[in-house]
Amino acid sequence: MAEETRVILHGRRLSPYVKRVEIALKIKGTPYEFVEEDLKNKCPLLLKYNPVHKKIPVLVHNGKPLVESFAIRDYIDETWKTGPELLPEDPYKRAQIRFWASFLHQHFFEAWILMSKTKREAQEKAIKELYKKLKLLEDGMKDLFRDGIPSSVDNKIKVPINELPVAKELHIPHEIVVTSVKLLRELALKSSVDT
Ligand SMILES: N[C@@H](CCC(=O)N[C@@H](CS)C(=O)NCC(=O)O)C(=O)O
């Protein structure tokens, strides 16, 4: 049962794992505070809350820390019953959504990271691989949501994913994404030269 609550999300706005949690909170209409973490200089609280992986996101609900974005998403779904369910009722559809979410997590992000860390032929290869995975993901999504995504406001209305109010609200401007990706690439290339 949802009780009087204080919800704090430790993260970074650009992290896709943090986005997963933010989207879940927004869909449920759960208010939360956002604490922007500096991953190069992790604060003692983050290390205390996530001593195993020392990663974001961390969600703190009434003082209790939760880690790992999928586990947090499920916790949010099971705790705040006031908003719409995050996963469909049909077990087959749920399983399909879980499959694609884990594909995105394990394969797509991995290919994306490889692409941003490599140069020349290795990068060309990584880009091809990334496009292949993107195509698989897109086809999977089209199949799964033939008529669009159910609106979080009215489950019967189907809307394209970019039109969802929550997607618009959490949208990050293209220039900011590009600048951050360039920075990440510089850092990744520098650390691969240093090692
Ligand atoms: N499996 C984790 C992955 C989280 C993750 O990789 N977070 C990154 C930011 S996008 C992080 O905290 N990196 C810091 C580090 O690796 O030290 C989840 O789903 O929550």
UniProtKB/TrEMBL annotation:
Broad class of enzyme this protein falls into: transferase
InterPro entries recorded: Glutathione_S-Trfase, Glutathione_S-Trfase_N, Omega/Tau-like, Thioredoxin-like_sf
Keyword Transferase among record annotations: yes
Membrane spanning residue stretches: none
GO biological process terms held by the UniProt record: glutathione metabolic process
Domain GST N-terminal: 5-84
Pfam families for the chain: GST_N
GO cellular component, one term: cytosol
Stretches of the chain forming a coiled coil according to its record: 120-147
GO MF: glutathione transferase activity
Source organism, top-level taxon: Eukaryota
Similarity comment text for this entry: Belongs to the GST superfamily.
Role, per record: Is involved in the conjugation of reduced glutathione to a wide number of exogenous and endogenous hydrophobic electrophiles.
Identification of the protein by name: Glutathione S-transferase
Organism name: Rubus argutus
Lineage, top ranks: Eukaryota, Viridiplantae, Streptophyta, Embryophyta, Tracheophyta
